[in-house]
Design brief:
heterodimer, A: mainly alpha, 1% strand, globular, B: alpha/beta, five-stranded mixed sheet, 12 helices
Chain lengths: 391, 450
């Protein structure tokens, strides 16, 4: 590897040269290939082996089960819709057909999301003369997983650029943003192009070979939008929503795939189990309250079932745990998680315009996170002041 | 009268090269150096010029703001070099040994028979006063203050730290004299915080007229600031004095013999030391004499421990407060895909992102690579895991970065010292220079509020 190292060093453009962008790109590539041998000078002489790249890549790895399952499910829903396979067929029937169809549909989304986001990051790194920060590694993977499959690629690009610039870079880049970047992307799409983000036409790819659409009137709505319209019987059984062969955003449907990611995040300590757990507790509580109120079929969906539907599990594991936008104190994390879970189910059930309340609940949670921390830290300050008075 | 204090948060970082519990043949040092830079916030004024002959205990420089605080020569000889930095700031004063070891004489008496003023006077004149530091700010104590308590730590939990129980063994008499002197300085208690992880030495256990606290737990449990936070915390407006138990031995020797006897036992440790062991030497000694033929190529010499020590040259000198000389592997290697979790570089991690967390007791040869690049704060909960105080460390650090003194006060700036953050800095994913931020903030608050 020394040869590669030497080769890279030879190509290194000057940091203050004519082409700052070239340096930013070189630096991003080099630090991806090699952890540079910078040495400690002030303070500690030895350092932990963990760094931000390692941390971020673990989250990307945790997303892989969702990505792979999402690819399969996209194909599965497609063939189901055009009638080439039946729901009663086994998982293995047309397995590779489904997977490859899904991969062809999903990979462009991944590429566009990374391309647009990293492009913005490189430009900002060049202008601000700092190195590329790793935050977008995770956002770039999250974005394709939380959009419907039929979304046009250019919309993803526009939304990603908006989110990285307005959601992150204007605040100072990775570590400084108030709102989760991937969710800003989704919120942008949701409000700017509602026809492509909701309704019953976008969740399943029904294109045929010659580019025709399937017969009009085919309904491929997500279970939640069905339920809002009163068709609670359309909600898949709790088992189906755990396994995940249902229409929905690409990565969010399978609780099992999300669970695999959650295991990795909790085992490595990268994702906060406090947030994940307390968000489920909050959602469960709200579900129980609705159950107790009763009155309409949707209100009576069992609380446990609510947690398995829609983007709740995905949001809890991958979105709410974003350390930059979540609460930072241990107590704060619990309040924050319960708050999001509570609001997510509230929006989902009570507001027919937004069947997917999780996104809005987490964004709201992001906004409240600093306030929650402020209260927790202030409690500590008060305790400290009391110490003086009692002493 | 002993109390158990269990500290749960923190982490022991196990490195290769622990010192064997035996003394190597003593080597006399050719020269010593006093570094005003060892004392944060100090403006030194020289009392000597090149060519002056000094005895052990003769003043070399003093504090410009308080000329009673003297810094005296640990050996007898001749002042040969005064090196200066930018704006003629004094960096080092070098004294070449004459080999004769002649001493200035100070008061020799049982501290119990002396008044507080007499003890203060003896400590200041002999140059042992700077061993007494204070919280807040972690600087040399002000002799005009009335501290609410004095805390003496007799345990060091830092990586490869010397075993105080071994070093102090058999010195119960001077320790007691030193502690007696300290008890006269405060109206409150003198706390002797001894090793609770293992059986502390008789010298510490038998100490009288002091409150003995048994401290157990991982690093930074041995830091006096952590201990006093759990025993009797400092509040705004209060002052606590802190000492290292081995420095109390020096104070004891002063009252016993009437001389400034700056000899000390230090541990020579680290992966690049051929035979890690203990040496008897003197404060400020030239390390070249000690390390000769005992280190391998490619090491970094650190006066102090690898977490909060200072890098010195191979012919550099021990710092004022240090009882440890570490030589660890110098880094600088670019690591191909070193960031890959579980597959890349497997140095000891406080997180669970590499397999090293499975073997926390394995001794490792960690080098001085940063293992990454500096970033903004991203991960949360990391510092809190290893910061055993009822303080929010990241919030405090952020208030320090924005220089908001009111906020720092509220969040507990008076209780902390840079060394208390050393484990946080080690484990920081974002590679933030925590100790530097804390030191600068303490200096700022001290300047603004005095």
């Amino acid at each position: 590897m020394e040869a590669l190292d030497k080769f890279m060093q030879k190509m290194k453009p000057k940091a203050d040269g004519k082409f700052p962008l070239a340096h930013a790109i070189w630096d991003g590539t080099y630090t991806f290939l090699f952890v540079p041998g910078h040495k400690n000078h002030n303070g500690v002489h030895i350092r932990d082996s963990v760094d931000l790249k390692r941390t971020m890549i673990i989250v990307v790895k945790a997303l892989i089960p969702c990505l792979l399952f999402g690819m399969y499910n996209v194909g599965h829903q497609h063939f189901l819709a055009i009638g080439e396979c039946l729901a009663s067929d086994g998982v293995c029937a047309m397995f590779w057909d489904k997977f490859i169809f899904g991969a062809i549909k999903v990979l462009p989304l991944v590429i566009v999301s990374y391309g647009a986001g990293l492009g913005v990051e490189f430009v900002f790194a060049a202008v601000n003369k700092h190195s590329i920060h790793e935050g977008f590694l995770v956002s770039g993977m999250l974005i394709p997983l939380i959009v419907p499959i039929d979304i046009p690629l250019w919309m993803v690009a526009v939304a990603t650029i908006f989110a990285v610039v307005i959601g992150k870079e204007v605040f100072g880049g990775t570590g400084m943003n108030v709102l989760n970047v991937a969710l800003v992307t989704r919120a942008f799409l949701f409000f700017a192009y509602p026809t492509k983000m909701s309704g019953d036409q976008v969740w399943i790819d029904t294109s045929l070979e010659e580019g025709q659409k399937l017969v009009d009137g085919f309904s491929g709505a997500t279970p939640l939008s069905d339920a809002i319209q009163g068709g609670v019987e359309a909600i898949p059984s709790i088992m189906d929503s755990i396994i995940g062969f249902i229409p929905g955003s690409i990565g969010e449907t399978s609780v099992i795939a999300i669970g695999l990611g959650a295991l990795l995040l909790i085992a490595t300590g990268i994702g906060s189990f406090r947030i994940i757990l307390s968000m489920f507790v909050g959602g469960y509580l709200m579900g129980m309250i609705f159950n107790a109120v009763g009155g309409s079929p949707f209100l009576e969906v069992p609380a446990m079932h609510q947690l398995m539907l829609g983007g709740f599990a995905f949001g809890a594991v991958f979105m709410a745990t974003d350390p930059v936008t979540a609460s930072q104190t241990a107590t704060g994390k619990i309040i924050y998680g319960v708050f999001i879970g509570f609001i997510a189910i509230l929006i989902r059930v009570a507001n027919p315009a937004y069947p997917e309340g999780v996104m809005l609940a987490i964004l709201l949670g992001n906004v409240f996170a600093p306030l929650i921390d402020h209260m927790v830290v202030n409690a500590n300050i008060k305790k400290r002041l009391k110490r003086v008075k009692t002493a | 009268m002993s109390r158990d204090v269990k500290i749960r948060k923190g982490a022991n970082i196990k490195l290769l090269g622990v010192a064997d519990k035996m003394y190597a043949n003593p080597v006399s040092t050719s020269d010593i150096v006093l570094k005003p830079t060892d004392f944060p916030g100090l403006t030194p004024k020289l009392s000597v010029k090149i060519g002056d002959k000094v005895k052990a205990g003769s003043p070399i420089f003093y504090n410009k703001e308080d000329d009673r605080v003297l810094f005296t020569s640990p050996i007898s000889g001749e002042v040969v070099e005064i090196s200066r930095g930018e704006k003629r700031k004094i960096l080092e004063v070098k004294v070449k040994s004459d080999g004769a070891n002649t001493y200035e004489t100070f008061k020799q008496a049982d501290p119990n028979s002396l008044s507080r003023e007499e003890i203060l006077d003896n400590l200041l004149k002999s140059g042992v006063w700077p061993f007494i530091r204070q919280r807040p700010y972690d600087v040399i104590a002000n002799p005009d203050d009335a501290p609410k308590a004095i805390h003496v730590t007799a345990i060091d939990t830092a990586p490869l730290a010397p075993d105080y129980d071994f070093v102090a063994h058999g010195q119960a008499d001077v320790l007691q004299i030193g502690l007696d002197a300290l008890t006269k300085l405060t109206a409150g208690k003198v706390h002797l915080n001894i090793n609770g992880n293992a059986n502390a030495d008789e010298a510490f256990r038998s100490a009288k007229n002091v409150q003995i606290n048994k401290i157990s737990g991982p690093h930074p449990a041995g830091n006096v600031g952590i201990q006093l936070h759990h025993i009797d915390p400092v509040n705004k407006g209060e002052v606590v004095w802190t000492l290292n138990a081995l420095d109390v031995l020096t104070i004891g020797k002063l009252f016993k013999t009437g001389q400034f006897d700056a000899s000390r036992s230090i541990a020579i440790v680290g992966a690049k030391v051929k035979t890690p062991t203990y040496y008897k030497t003197v404060l400020g000694a030239n390390v070249a004499d000690i390390l000769k033929n005992n280190i391998e190529e490619g090491g970094r010499v650190i006066s102090g421990n690898p977490l909060s020590g200072t890098q010195i040259a191979e012919n550099g000198h021990l710092s004022f407060y240090d009882y440890q000389l570490s030589v660890i592997t110098e880094g600088g290697k670019n690591r191909f895909f070193g960031w890959l979790p579980f597959l890349g570089y497997n140095g000891f991690s406080l997180s669970r992102t590499s397999f090293s967390f499975l073997t926390p007791n394995k001794r490792r040869d960690l080098d001085t690579n940063m293992n990454g690049e500096e970033r903004a704060f991203v991960m949360t909960g990391e510092y809190e895991k290893v910061f055993p105080m009822d303080i929010y460390p990241v919030h405090l650090l952020k208030s320090m970065i924005i220089k908001d003194i009111d906020l720092m006060e509220k969040l507990g700036v008076y209780e902390v010292a840079p060394e208390d953050f050393s484990v946080c800095e080690y484990g920081c994913t974002s590679k933030i220079e925590t100790q530097k931020i804390v030191r600068e903030a303490l200096d700022l608050v001290r300047k603004e509020t005095s």
